[in-house]
């Protein structure tokens, strides 16, 4: 561990220093959120190296009835719900309150005697905290668009509801329609008063709430201590990608949870029924979202390689798992997902023969300090991940390793978890290996330079981050005294505050605003869109978010305005739609981002302003 600690610190220094020397200060700034935890984790691991479990650690000394923490949790949760009702936009105080809720969950887990009551109550509180964060966005604002794909998926769901048949409205999404049928069926059950996109939001939040239990179950099968499983679930619901995709109600959301279920099956004893369940889950992932399976396969192969490297005799991922995954993928792609093969071939061609289409993300160049401020929660997650990995390596070097699967859920290690389960180290190795692809930062520039969605790994690998980070938090609390427990509480509170208030998960009112669009459309904007669509049938130009919404949900003849034309950017359009409220706060995303100062208002003034609701204007 000492050698690895030195390597982490050295890599952190080089990662920040080399770009600075090469004249790339923006990349150096961006690397700070990675460098700080790479230095802090080895230092903390050395400070709490002595194992004090059972001989004075705060985790064993403090025992408070769970009703105290639960009462405080419900009182605060009720106050936060009232705050959502009385405020138009979530205030910073809401984020602080959510951080306290997470802190109460932490105290309930570490300062309550273990047992069935603690386990059930803690999981319930974690689910409520997650749903409060997710639904405070998706059910609180008009229409959450996320990365804009939600407009297309909502249009397909509406088409299924109207026609009673699967839709060919958008051929590129035809192979994802299991989710659309699911959302449409849910909408029918809830009645006409609930819109299709609201049903999708409810389903997505519910799926990720179920994911909390799956992460706990996966953790318990790798290491028998109940506290470790609960802390892993707590880290998961503080991970920004888990929160965002709980909001982003698209087919990939369902496959993330199916992958969690697959991991639980792989960590169970390989009986005949479990083998059948594994096959069913693999097929479900392939059918639900065919583009997902290459990333899942890559992760499974990485797990298999890591297991061989760590000498596991009973692997999580064996030849059967890899074989059925490859077979199911090949058969489905061959007969029902030709477009996936065409897309992959097109991506390879563009990478090899037309790399000029790629571009470096604008935020890295324009505002690196703003970007790194929004990456802070990822820095905390990386800190816990590295801490957990260092602790796993240390325990392997000085304690015996059990080579059997974990006992059934409900069993508790009699020695406080002293015997390390072998597969947990494998999960740690995989988490560290995936970190450059899961955490945003310099290496994810490959996503732009290569034209491959490298960041998709973050959508499927959060379980590995949660378990390894949860183990780091678990060992930190188990080994330390009261001061360590309080320090862990403070760090976790900062982690959760930044996780729910950054611009990736809180674009409604982020603490530090990025120069990009808001992830939702307000009711006033959508009403204005509908009015314009009813009154105007011709072609017009607008920003990307508005065009996707109007084009896919209303069939409007819109196009995204080319910002590269400068002062003449509106000239080629017969009419122009401008989101005025959005432009007052952030740049509008045309072919490039354009803020208020750069918008050619003189060109708009030469046109007739035929509609103006205050939030949206239309010029013809």
Automatic annotation (TrEMBL):
Sequence intervals crossing the membrane: 29-48, 68-86, 92-111, 123-144, 194-216, 228-248, 276-305, 317-335, 375-393, 424-445, 457-474, 481-500
This protein's record includes keyword Transmembrane helix: yes
Keywords for the protein's UniProt record, in alphabetical order: Membrane, Transmembrane, Transmembrane helix
Organism: Natronococcus occultus SP4
Protein name: Uncharacterized protein
């Amino acid at each position: 561990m000492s050698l690895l600690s030195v390597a982490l610190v050295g890599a952190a220094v080089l990662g920040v220093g080399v770009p600075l020397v090469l004249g790339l200060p923006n990349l150096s700034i961006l690397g700070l959120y990675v460098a700080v935890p790479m230095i802090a984790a080895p230092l903390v691991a050395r400070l709490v190296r002595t194992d004090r479990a059972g001989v004075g650690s705060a985790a064993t000394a403090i025992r408070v009835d769970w009703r105290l923490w639960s009462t405080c949790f419900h009182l605060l949760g009720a106050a936060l719900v009232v705050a959502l009702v009385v405020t138009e936009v979530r205030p910073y105080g809401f984020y602080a309150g959510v951080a306290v809720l997470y802190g109460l969950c932490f105290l309930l887990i570490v300062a309550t005697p273990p047992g069935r009551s603690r386990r059930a109550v803690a999981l319930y509180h974690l689910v409520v905290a997650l749903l409060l964060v997710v639904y405070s966005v998706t059910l609180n604002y008009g229409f959450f668009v996320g990365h804009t794909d939600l407009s297309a998926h909502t249009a397909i769901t509406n088409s299924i509801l109207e026609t009673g048949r699967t839709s060919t409205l958008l051929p590129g999404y035809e192979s994802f329609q299991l989710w659309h049928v699911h959302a449409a069926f849910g909408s029918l059950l809830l009645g006409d008063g609930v819109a299709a996109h609201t049903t999708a939001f409810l389903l997505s939040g519910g799926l990720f709430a179920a994911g909390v239990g799956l992460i706990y179950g996966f953790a318990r099968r790798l290491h028998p201590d109940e506290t470790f499983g609960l802390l892993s679930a707590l880290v998961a619901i503080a991970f920004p990608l888990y929160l965002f995709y709980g909001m982003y109600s698209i087919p990939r959301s369902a496959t993330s949870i199916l992958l969690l279920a697959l991991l639980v099956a792989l960590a169970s004893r390989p009986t005949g029924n479990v083998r059948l369940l594994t096959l069913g889950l693999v097929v479900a992932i392939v059918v639900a979202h065919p583009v997902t399976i290459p990333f899942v396969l890559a992760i499974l192969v990485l797990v298999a390689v890591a297991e061989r490297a760590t000498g596991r005799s009973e692997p999580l991922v064996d030849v059967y798992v890899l074989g059925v995954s490859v077979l199911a993928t090949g058969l489905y792609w061959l007969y029902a997902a030709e477009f996936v093969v065409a897309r992959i071939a097109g991506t390879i061609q563009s990478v090899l023969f037309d790399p000029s289409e790629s571009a470096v993300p604008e935020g890295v160049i324009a505002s690196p300090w703003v970007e790194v401020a929004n990456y802070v929660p990822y820095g905390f997650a990386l800190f816990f991940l590295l801490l957990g990995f260092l602790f796993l390596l240390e325990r392997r070097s000085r304690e015996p390793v059990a080579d059997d699967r974990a006992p059934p859920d409900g069993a508790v290690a009699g020695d406080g978890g002293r015997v390390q389960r072998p597969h947990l180290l494998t999960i740690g190795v995989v988490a560290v290996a995936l970190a450059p692809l899961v955490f945003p930062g310099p290496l994810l520039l490959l996503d732009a330079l290569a034209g491959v969605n490298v960041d998709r790994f973050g959508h499927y690998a959060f379980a590995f981050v949660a378990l390894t980070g949860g183990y780091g938090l678990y060992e930190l609390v188990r080994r330390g005294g009261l001061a360590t427990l309080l320090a862990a509480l403070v760090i976790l509170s900062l982690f959760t505050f930044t996780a729910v208030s950054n611009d990736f998960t809180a674009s409604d009112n982020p603490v530090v605003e990025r120069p990009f669009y808001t992830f939702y459309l307000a009711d006033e904007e959508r009403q204005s869109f509908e009015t314009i669509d009813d009154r105007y049938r011709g072609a017009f130009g607008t920003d990307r978010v508005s065009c996707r919404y109007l084009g896919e949900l209303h069939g409007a003849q819109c196009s995204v305005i080319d910002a590269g034309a400068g002062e003449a950017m509106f000239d080629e359009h017969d009419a122009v739609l401008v989101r005025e409220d959005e432009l007052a706060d952030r740049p509008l995303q045309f072919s490039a981002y354009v803020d208020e100062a750069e918008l050619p208002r003189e060109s708009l003034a030469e046109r007739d302003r035929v509609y103006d609701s205050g939030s949206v204007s239309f010029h013809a």
